[in-house]
Design goal:
- By secondary structure, the protein is an alpha+beta fold.
- It has three helices and two strands.
- The protein has a two-stranded antiparallel sheet.
Length: 82
């Protein structure tokens, strides 16, 4: 019997891959990144400015988390809250 041991499963491995790439999803600059997240994709509909680049990107990619640099994260927080 030749079976490999069952390792841990990582349900958020896509997010981990995006974080370890160290590239902002908005401005695409390399460097230190942070995660911006919402509880639900439905929360994006309640965003103050649905035309914001980050709202559009999250809705388009159907992702509740967005990997961004510190500058873009600060800009997101200056926009109307969700």
């Amino acid at each position: 019997m030749n079976s490999s041991p069952a390792g841990p499963t990582y349900p958020y491995k896509e997010l981990i891959r995006r974080l370890t790439a160290n590239r902002c999803s908005l401005c695409e600059r390399p460097g230190k990144v942070e995660a911006r997240h919402v509880k639900s994709l439905n929360d994006l509909q309640r965003a103050g400015d649905p035309s914001s680049d980050w709202v559009k990107l999250m809705a388009e990619r159907r992702r509740k988390a967005l990997v961004v640099c510190g500058s873009c994260h600060d800009r997101i927080h200056r926009s109307p809250p969700i």
